[in-house]
Amino acid sequence: MSETNSAAEVAAPHRYTAAMAADIEARWQDFWDAQGTYEAPNPSGDLAGDAELAARPKKFIMDMFPYPSGAGLHVGHPLGYIATDVYARHQRMTGHNVLHTLGFDAFGLPAEQHAVATGTHPRVSTEAAMDNMKQQLRRLGLGHDRRRSVATIDPDYYKWTQWIFLQIFNSWYDKEADRARPIAELVAQFESGERATPDGRPWSELSAAERADVLGQYRLAYASDAPVNWAPGLGTVLANEEVTADGRSERGNFPVFKAKLRQWNMRITAYSDRLLNDLDGLDWPEAIKLQQRNWIGRSEGARVDFAVGDDAITVFTTRQDTLFGATYMVLAPEHDLVEKIVPAAWPEGTHDVWTGGHATPADAVAAYRAQAASKSDVERQAEAKDKTGVFTGAFAVNPVSGEQVPVFIADYVLMGYGTGAIMAVPAHDSRDFAFARAFELPMRCVVEPSDGRGTDPAEWDDAFASYDAKIVNSSGEDISLDGLGVVEAKAKITAWLAARGIGEGTVNYRLRDWLFSRQRYWGEPFPIVYDEDGIAHPLPESMLPLELPEVEDYSPRTFDPDDANTVPETPLSRNEDWVNVTLDLGDGPKKYRRETNTMPNWAGSCWYELRYLDPHNGEKLVDPAIEQYWMGPREGMPHGGVDLYVGGAEHAVLHLLYARFWSKVLFDLGHVSSSEPFHKLYNQGMIQAFVYRDARGIAVPAAEVEERDGAFWYQGEKVSRVLGKMGKSLKNAVTPDEISAEYGADTLRLYEMAMGPLDVSRPWDTRAVVGQYRLLQRLWRNIVDEATGEATVVDTEPDEDTLRALHKAIDGAGQDMAGMRFNTAIAKVTELNNHLTKAGGPLSRSVAERLVLLIAPLAPHIAEELWRKLGHTDSVVYQDFPVADPAYVVDETVTCVVQVKGKVRARLEISPSIGDEELEKLALADPAVVAALGGAGIRKVIVRAPKLVNIVPA
Fold first, then answer.
1. In this structure, are 661 and 761 located in the same domain?
2. What is the CATH number for 482?
3. Angle between helices 18-35 and 860-869 (to 10 degrees)
4. Are residues 264 and 223 in contact, defined by beta-carbon separation less than 8 angstroms?
5. What's the mean pLDDT in 734-755?
6. Domain annotation covers residue 739
7. Do 719 and 755 reside in the same domain of the chain?
8. Given its phi and psi angles, is residue 198 left (phi above 0), alpha (psi -120 to 50 degrees) or beta?
9. How far apart (Å, rounded) are the C-alpha atoms in residues 438 and 427?
């Protein structure tokens, strides 16, 4: 410690310093915990009899579930947490009953990978990471109701995740009622004959396995053999949403292949229309709504059947008006009909280019299928210059023309979209055009080009696509579309197809059912067992939770990342004592085999908002009265849900879509009153940091980089600098603990909120943090004597200038906090504090108290301390936020600029409420304006009351 600093501390022992901030913050955090300051009361059951809650509007505020990383937090992580805390504190001070807490999404791959590498049980490492994160968050002064915090890995929590899975498993979607219903009601329909079985036999004649198969076609959670995304390098399958745009795993960046495996799925597609339509009632960013709409991908068109021998290839098309132009068909290589339609030999006259050089169709198809399996969906859909495919040897019949059209397989058609088959209209689709050119296939123009190219596709360079053109060359024996527009032609051909039973108008979706199985250890076990016939049976609620067993090896079997010809092997399958059990499920003890997959890490975050409401309820998912109070529909919230949900935009089609689906199922089954989980969504930006890299491209410690003459140097070597993410691996992470130790948590809170608009990314600059530290020091000095530590306020009325500054700050900062514009709220508080500093002298008590209340949501620790020094014995948390006096918010006068020929000639002090006519008269009468005009006439006067008058002489 220098002599200068030592002398300053002796002269001002009560100066606000980092050490004092640390003491203040620790004391108030202990006080809040001891007093239960942030504990939000639940309704007792009859809200009408609960006078306190009935008088206070509720506000349920949430952050997206954090994952407890072993690396701990850097300063970018708490941005959203601080923002919701400031907002929650302001809402409490404006009379709301605020529920704000934070739990942990604690199942997942990182803990399992750590366990594989170190032998440490995932629970041990995860709980240690949670404890560390809790301490870091507590130090920030976040006002969470800690009684309500949950972790997805707690058996008391995942008991209800398993329970919800069983509700979904035991449900089916009734299209006529447009909602989910218990599977028992479907069984009753089959038993009574109200609903026919698929093959028409009475339900009583079906075996147990046959009944299970029938119900599996309806259940909202079902197991099936279907194409899945298989990542050998991870040893697990992935949902479509977990595969990146370049066809690799989101975690680990491993290649992803298509494989056919038996896996659990969620029938989210049953809710496609409701998931789309209900977006209109949500207060979400339009960009997120658009991403969900695009992911669901609703399109209207027609189903058309093309006969192939005794079978039929069904296609979905949005351009049924071009059916006469279909000159060949393409199936996905994985399509079920491929093997059935392949003949033993090539038909006579088969083009050599169609065979791929193979002696038989079976050889050609087998070779091409192997080739396609090695590509990701993204690679298969890429606009490659060279189109690949092979003729199956089969022909289909175009239903409108009766023409025989060849059937190919090609990798640009995917089983996951539509029906896995297309009718190719090469004259009017660029991909089909390229394929037809490559394989010397015919093309027929059926949509009249409007660009003068003529109607012979042989002379074209590319397809012609238009929705605003006339149909041509489209006449058959009993139907003609010639001369019709696209809309009319679609309607006519759809009716024609339906009348003949070979097609119908239909709606298709891009959305696919949610793949719900993972070949991992660290996840929720499925509450499902299989009998000796392989029939799945749900565990009764009395057997929940089904807890994870101890295993010696946490790792799923992984394979060569590029080897698509592999199958998963799960860690749980190696624990035979757990897998093979004898249970009494109501019909006596029997042997069963447990499901050895686990649920994906998204499962626990699909419903955690409900558990926050009633976290210790052992009898129900959530008490209905409590759920209704916090999340039920009300004016402006037609679907109910959380009042404010803050998190990153990266979860647009993963967590948010899945959570919406689960909410709707629970709503349909009567378990909740809210059909949407989150009413208002706010996406915060990201705190970025500079990344410095040496000549090898390796990140170097940012804290050790020096800037000299506009260049950056590390240990004598010049390094590059780019703005990017903050993280331990990039060696640019700054922890909140470091900043709190140097300046205090209140300073960190203020700095993160002052950096810019909350929804915009911004660069971190440690050097700039001191600005907010100095604001708090000036605030402290304005109220506290640094020599004695006592408040210096006086019981006198402030002058009018101070009252105007105070009430403008109250008005502006209050509106900004309500609108989550925290950076401008801080600017207004800073402006007021600067005014008070310049005014000098002791503050009026009324001004000091309202200044403290203004800063309280943003810097709660120092606000509590100052509130206590001002003589109050209660917490500042539930004090009323100051209310501005309108008389002091409006300026008495404003300055109006008067211009003549664009030059300022006068400035008028006028009332802000002056009208245009009166302002024009005042401006024209001003002596300086009269002199500037010099007797010239006036051509035009432009008045923008009360700020501007522009006079244009004749």
1. no
2. 3.90.740.10
3. 90
4. yes
5. 96
6. yes
7. no
8. alpha
9. 14
Residue of 602, 598, 613 lying closest to 659 (CA atoms): 602
CB 158 within 8 A of CB 524: yes
Asked whether the predicted pLDDT for residue 5 surpasses 60, the reply is no
Closest among 891, 358, 288, 388 to 645, alpha carbons compared? 288
846 plus 874 within the same structural domain: yes
Q: Residue 194 domain-assigned?
A: no
Q: 589: part of which helix (H) or strand (E)? A: strand 589-594
**For residue 9, what pLDDT is reported?**
60
> What are the pLDDT digits (tens) for 513-524?
999 999 899 999
Which residue carries 């909410």 as its tokens?
Answer: 663
CATH, residue 920: 3.10.20.590
Residues in the chain: 954
Q: What is the pLDDT of residues 323-350, one digit of tens each?
A: 999 999 999 999 999 999 999 999 998 9
Is residue 535 a part of any domain in this protein? yes
By DSSP bridging, strand 711-714 and strand 421-424 are: unpaired
- Give the model's pLDDT for residue 229: 86
* Same domain? 453 vs 325: yes
Amino acid 915: pLDDT: 92
Q: At what angle do helices 845-855 and 800-818 cross, to 10 degrees?
A: 20
pLDDT at 241: 75
Domain final residue pick, 623, 657, 683: 683
- In angstroms, the CA 807 to CA 379 distance is 61
Q: Which of 700, 693, 682 is CA-nearest to residue 646?
A: 682
Residue whose entry in the numeric block shows the structure tokens 């004597």? 785
Strands 681-683 and 644-647: parallel
> In 358-506, where does DSSP find H-type helix?
361-373, 377-381, 430-438, 486-499
Place of tokens 């027929």: 444
- Residue 419 DSSP code: T
Which ranges of 155-243 does DSSP label H, i.e. alpha helix?
Answer: 155-169, 183-192, 208-216
Please tell me whether residues 885 and 897 are part of one structural domain. no
For residue 91, the domain's CATH number is: 3.40.50.620
Taking every pair of Cα atoms in the chain, the longest distance, rounded to a whole number of angstroms, is 111
Cis peptide before 545 (omega within 30 of 0): yes
pLDDT score recorded for residue 482: 96
Task: Please spell the DSSP secondary structure of 122-176, one letter per residue.
Answer: HHHHHHHHHHHHHHHHHHTT----GGG--BTTSHHHHHHHHHHHHHHHTEEEETT
Model confidence band, residue 2 (pLDDT cutoffs 50, 70, 90): very low
Q: From 459, 477, 508, give the residue that closes a domain.
A: 508
pTM of the complete model: 0.86
CA atoms within 13 A on the CB side of 226: 21
Percent of the chain whose pLDDT exceeds 90: 81
Tokens of 892: 């008495």
The whole-angstrom distance between residue 41's C-alpha and the CA centroid of its chain comes to 29
Q: Which tens digit of pLDDT belongs to each residue from 670-712?
A: 999 999 999 999 999 999 999 999 999 999 999 999 999 999 9
**What per-residue confidence (pLDDT) applies to 365?**
96
The residues, ordered by sequence, that sit 6+ positions from 611 with a Cβ below 8 Å of its Cβ are 103, 150, 157, 160, 621, 622
Pair 494, 366 in one domain: yes
Are 750 and 701 contained in the same domain?
Answer: no
Helix (H) / strand (E) containing 817: helix 800-818
Phi, psi of 557 (to 5 degrees): -70, 125
Residue 783 lies in domain: 1-35+735-890
Would you call the peptide bond into 198 cis, given omega within 30 degrees of 0 as the criterion? no
68 and 126 Cβ atoms separated by less than 8 Å: yes
What is the number of domains present in the chain?
A: 6
In a domain, 188, yes or no: no
Q: What is the DSSP letter of 213?
A: H
Angle between helices 183-192 and 208-216 (to 10 degrees): 120
Peptide bond into 946 cis (omega under 30): yes
Query: What would the mean pLDDT of 135-147 be, rounded to a whole number?
Result: 97
Residues 693, 762 within the same domain: no
Distance CA 60, CA 612 (A): 10
